[in-house]
Amino acid sequence: MAALVHGFDWPDRFVTGTVGEPGARTFYLQAEEGRRVVSVALEKQQSAALADGVDAVLDQLMADGNPYGIPAQAPAGLADDGPLTEPVEELFRVGDMRLSWDASTHQIVVQAMRLRTDEEEATLAEAGELAALAGLAGEEPVEEMFVVRIPVGAARAFAARTRSVIAQGRPLCPICEEPMDPAGHICPVPDELE
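Below the sequence we write its predicted C-alpha cells.
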C-alpha cells in the first residue's frame, strides 16, 4: 500500500489540544517544526489511550533496567501549556493509531492513520472486486498518515499535557459519574437507589 506521510522527526512542538467549549470540543494532535504546522483531529478517547500508551511504553523501558535514561515524570521546563497554534486546519480525522519505540534514536514514534469514510471503503472494495474479475491488479489505495517521533522527556510532557487537556472537560456527576452539561443534567437513578 502506498503511503502519504506527514512526518516530524524532531518537532519543535507536539501537543494535544482542543477547539470549542467543554461538551463540544474537538481534540487535535498538532506538530510544529519551524513554520510548518500539521493538525489532525481525533476522539477524546483516542487522546486518552495515546497518553496511557506513551506512559506504558516508557514505564516498561524503565522496568527493563532503564538503559535509555527514561524520566519517571515530565522534566521541568518541557511542560507546554500554550494553546494550539492558530489557525487550526484539520488535515484529516484519525482512524487507527500505532505507538512504537525506536531504540536507535531513543524516541517514541506516534503514527496516526487517516480515517476512511464508509463511502471510501465501499469504493475501494468495489474497485478491488472489479479488478479481480478482470484479472487485473487493482490500484493500491494511498494510506495517509501523520508520523511524529519525540524524545523520552518530550513524550512524558506530551502525556501529562494530554491528561490535563482531557481533565478540562465537563465535570463528572458525583452520582452517576457521567459528564454534566452546563445547561443541566438528567442523572439516571443508580441501581442501589431503586
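The first helix runs from residue 44 to 63.
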